[in-house]
Amino acid sequence: MSDKLLVIGEVKEGSLRNVSYEAIAAAKKINEEGEIVGVICGNGELQALGEEMIYYGADRVITISHEQLKAYTSEGYGQAILAIVNEESPTSIVMGHTAIGKDLTPKIASKLNTGLISDAVDIEVDGDHVQFIRPIYSGKAFEKKIITDGLTFFTIRPNNIPALERDEARSGEITPKDLEITDIRTVIKDVVRKASEGVDLSEANIIIAGGRGVKSEDGFKPLYELAEVLGGAVGASRGACDAEYCDYSLQIGQTGKVVTPDLYIAVGISGAIQHLAGMSNSKVIVAINKDPEANIFNVADYGIVGDLFEVIPLLIEEIKKL
Length: 322
Ligand code: FAD
Description:
Belongs to the ETF alpha-subunit/FixB family. β4, α2 and β5 form a beta-alpha-beta unit. With 322 residues, the protein is α/β, with parallel strands linked by helices. α3 crosses α4 and α5 runs parallel beside α8. The strands form four sheets. It has a seven-stranded parallel β-sheet, sandwiched between helices. 27% of the residues lie in helices and 26% in strands. The chain is globular and about 60 Å long.
């Protein structure tokens, strides 16, 4: 019997998050020939989102629209996904290692009495074994894990496994499912979003992160300008958040967001181990710091020793000429 791989899509503000497409690519890495079944939970019209999953490589998609799935709760989403898992009996389940993925997948794994490999950054197939590569010790080392028996259940870190090319010529069945979702004890009354500017930090390909060296809320302005010319997002160290230069939603690190952009520019950040835990796997790291001994230079691919308030305007000027 060929493999059936369930990919749980994640909807944010009416669109699927990129990691949903990356999860399809991850499923393909496990078994190129397997059937990939997308699952989307939400409330309202989900057909167009189902089509997107197909364009990115899913063979068919199951959509579950329900009033109780309007906002995420582990109870509501857990019931819906478990019902689909029981019906479809997949050989693998994959989801993004996002805030929702981190909350939902252990719950499903425990209900299914199965294991879970979380936060994989790559997948290698070695003979009969699928190896999941995941960072440990705050990104200082990588371990390879295999599942020898039962369901292959895992989450993938966003921005690490590239999505397949979008192909509008692909077609597949999209099946709306009516499910009964009961006994929800959590009621989401309202979702208040922080007014974030520009690109979503956790999915950005370019991040300009500011630290305590930025010195004030106003000091972040040149970073926002640089982010705008580069089409990136602004992040921060906990030092900058603790000093109230910016909101905690921008914090990157061990107790903040884990990001893996193509380009990470650390500005006035010393490079504490807890900060590195959230960004050291970025593809290219540039550090701007006036202290040549700053630890951030030990992980940087390119370093600029200088005052950020002089360096950033020069960078913006040069980039605008391109
Ligand atoms: P600092 O260490 O003060 O560094 C500021 C840097 O700016 C210095 O290197 C300085 O040379 C440079 N600078 C100053 N002025 C300029 C200028 N004009 N131009 C250029 N450079 C300049 N930290 C995180 O970031 N994320 C986390 O998730 C996190 N979690 C933590 C969890 C725990 C349990 C603990 C104990 C700590 C955690 N921390 C975290 C805090 C971490 O240990 C550091 O304190 C913090 O990262 C320091 O922030 P910083 O680099 O911005 O500040």
